[in-house]
Amino acid sequence: MAETSWQSAERDSGAMAPYIPLMPLALPAIIGRWLASRGWRPRRHQMDMLGAAQRGDHALLVAPTGAGKTLAGFLPSLADLIAHPTDRLHTLYVSPLKALAVDVRRNLLTPIEEMGLPISVETRTGDTPSDRKARQRVRPPQILLTTPESLSLLLSYPDAALLFSDLRTVIVDEVHAFATQKRGDLLSLSMARLQAINPALRRVALSATVADVDAYRAWLAPDGDIDRVTPVMGEAGAEPNVAILIPEGRVPWSGHSGKYAAKQVMAEIEARQTTLVFCNTRGLAELIFQELWSVNDANLPIAIHHGSLSIEARRKVESAMAAGKLRALVATASLDLGVDWGNVDCVIQMGAPKGSSRLLQRIGRANHRLDQASEAILIPGNRFEYLEARAALDAVEAGERDADDFRAGSLDVLVQHVMGLACAGPFRAEDLLDELRSATPYSGLTAEAFDHVLHFIEGGGYALRAYDRFKRLTQDDDGQGNVLWRVSHPRFIQQHRLNAGIIVDQPALAVRFANGRKLGTVEEGFAAQLRPGDSFFFSGMALEVVRMDTSDLTVRATSKQARIPSWGGTRMAMSTRLADRVRHFLAAPQEWHRFPPDVREWLEMQKLRSALPQPGQLLIETFPHEGRHYLVCYSFEGWNAHQSLGMLLTRRMESQGLMPLGFVSNDYALAVYGLKPVTDPQSLFSADILDHEFVDWVEQSSLLKRAFRDVAVISGLIERQHPGKRKTGRQVTFSTDLIYDVLRKYQPDHLLLKAAWADARARMTDVGRLGDLIDRAATTMLHVTLERVSPLAVPVLILIGREHVAQSAAEDALLIEAEALVAEAMRAD
């Protein structure tokens, strides 16, 4: 089996230049002997991390997968524990994934046991039994592996100061995965509290895919002081061997799954020891698993893994992979972060990767040897996705990473954190404000804003002040002239610990067999479409609905034809840097020789019949087709931004009397269609659309209500659970809708409404990219009027009618219609 990334050290074969230390370093002899017994020696960046620790510096390590980042992160802790044994908590490792914490523990225990070190390593996540959690607070291990949410809960106990008083190091793994998100806000606040408990605490972050090193150094550093964080850059590994699979036939015009290539993918699986097949969504993972299983003539052991499956199902699959018992595993992002299985020799990406950093992360799951190339295959779903896949490969070869969008910390997360600290004990507002500001996302927190946060937790705000259930904090005097904030009743402490967490799941039902065995969860929206006797695929099986109640969907195995479940959530958009590369391809015919003949023919016909936009230019095509008039916008800003723009354009077209009928979009283009032609698209894209139609649309749609539901849950205003009972999704939604209506009417400037607006604008609609699109339209719009559909418009127009296809006959009819559309578009006359 190949070396895991924890074990990865430079093999002493003379293949690499000898390491010259930057300063005298002390590697404990027992570690040196253990490495030597395997023919390994520490890599440069591993010794640099040890040097940073000996100087007392915080450190950010950026190194490729397989470079031994985990060893580099833990090496200083092991060295210190060997030199200065302790029975207290010494090192805290924080991971974005429960599976990663479990995997790191497994890989960490092996060398510890083989060296005979008296060091205990345990995990603490939502899956940890309650009795072990209670024991860990009294008798903690020397090394504890956890998640941001579990760390936050630990800080809510009165004994937190004692538990963490001797903590020496916090290691944040895969920091790029959550630093810019709400979970990163929570972790940053938690590290500020840990630093307040022990000012000598050292912070370490690890990543393989960081574009802006200084931005992450600032996020990691106390008070954002990047000079206190030593950047450690790992040596480059072997260039990955990445290929784009060309289908047997032609690259499809539409679709995003790559399921057409099932036989070819199965052939790749048969030719290798173990293959990871990544999909961008849970629904796609279920679909691809079924497609692969249907062509698995050799009956190879393959499995599926995603976040909606039960804990037991996921752990069973993870164990089978670790033991080398599976030939292939179909997975989502639930496994693309740092889980190390040395026997994976190929990664296959179904559909476009959406970003070079994500692609690199997934490629890194193969091989785990710095001096050997990882192997990966991309399966584009359609012709635009081919261009995106080619752009991703070029970006990887150029060392280009996706940009990260750091922003101010979220208020709902701040509310949850402050309430958690209050559960640990009373506090002075002035002292806490200084501590909160030391967390970089909240460095700009004003005294006025913090006062709003405190008074919101104190009574829910002006409009809710009459209700006792919102009065979670109270003020009193400590007898020495100091005003202290404390929890107003013990029940609020229990309420906080039951409901704390940043990830707000969509309302869901448990999927169970009649014997009670839980398979996982499906969202209420999908479950509401089912009736007894209906069938769907889940956990790789065809299941028939037996009955349904408010919390459970009881099923049995079936051989009936089944459908694929759908899950909500924001779809991943193509990164802006990949979008720029795709735009470049369109304007660079000299590079088309690199493309398959049918993709090249498609672009050449577009150039002949219409136009191809220059980089930075916004191409708008208008044309009639089958009694309707179409406007197609090629902006490459992603499905989320296009969905928002489609809503806004149809509203504006309505006001101009253009009689819109609807719109359809993908990551690359938006098509709006109606009964009257658009002759002046510039008027539709004027900048005030974001001031007028956008605000009006968001406030009248369910978008803001959904955002409010999430921030109300995160802030603790609405409970997800009572002792012994969990609220259904409908109950939570009903409660938040009532409060939302009250606040909109009586307190429109309420803190949570502001937080909901921030979410709606920044995340749920990709409004930043939407604004960039509108800005481009003002100066770079190229409007081409055509007599019929263009080749470039075919992929998005084929989507019309496909959203709710229920019968195979309807699917056949759509295929016939698509063939006719292609024939019309590709005629040269």
UniProtKB/TrEMBL annotation:
Pfam families referenced in this protein's UniProt entry, alphabetically: DEAD, DEAD_assoc, Helicase_C, WHD_Lhr
Domain Helicase ATP-binding: 50-220
Parts of the chain that traverse the membrane: 16-36
Gene3D superfamilies: P-loop containing nucleotide triphosphate hydrolases
Record has Ribonucleoprotein as a keyword: no
Molecular-function GO term, any one: ligase activity
Residues covered by the Helicase C-terminal domain: 261-404
Annotated InterPro entries: ATP-dep_Helicase, DEAD/DEAH_box_helicase_dom, DEXH_lig_assoc, Helicase_ATP-bd, Helicase_C-like, Lhr-like, Lhr-like_DEAD/DEAH_assoc, Lhr_WH_dom
Record keywords: ATP-binding, DNA damage, DNA repair, DNA-binding, Helicase, Hydrolase, Isomerase, Ligase, Membrane, Nucleotide-binding, Transmembrane, Transmembrane helix
Family membership: Belongs to the Lhr helicase family. Lhr-Core subfamily.
PANTHER family according to UniProt: ATP-DEPENDENT HELICASE LHR-RELATED-RELATED, LARGE ATP-DEPENDENT HELICASE-RELATED PROTEIN
Name the UniProt record assigns to this protein: DNA ligase-associated DEXH box helicase
Protein's organism: Sphingomonas bisphenolicum
